[in-house]
Design goal:
Layout lengths: L18 H15 L12 H29 L24 H16 L3 H5 L1 H24 L1 H9 L5
Length: 162
Amino acid sequence: MGRQKTAVEPDSAGVRFPPPLVYLGVLLLGLAAERFAPLRSFGVGWRLLIAMGAPLLIAGAAMMFAATGLFRRLGTNVRPLQPVAKIATTGPYRWTRNPMYLGMALVYAGLAIGFDGPIAFALLPLVLIIIQTQVIARAERYLEAKFGDDYRRYKAAVRCWL
């Protein structure tokens, strides 16, 4: 028998996996690797780690919830595996085209710091490369094809990340 492919909605960005799983999977991999590596700590006290990690986690979660709420109010799908009905250009989408992924990156960084995970923290750029090349690039091609000049104007006016 041949390989079975993941079902992807034809009118979608063609992303084949939920992006939060990339963030979570690499974070857990990094935290687990620290049990076997000589670099197991940032070398600062837990209070400072929490003081540094908590604001990142809170800011990231707030950004993700604001973006998700806006998508729901607009009546469009949150998941990149499903069709997009409208382009979001208000709320956090005024400053970044990808507030959900930026929010996930902030949550990831906050957790890596809060859990004293330097290896997990060092793996964040790898996660961002995966998200940029396998999720955002696909989504932007899809949005340009679906919304044409409207999306191109938005893309020219608002940065990808920050």
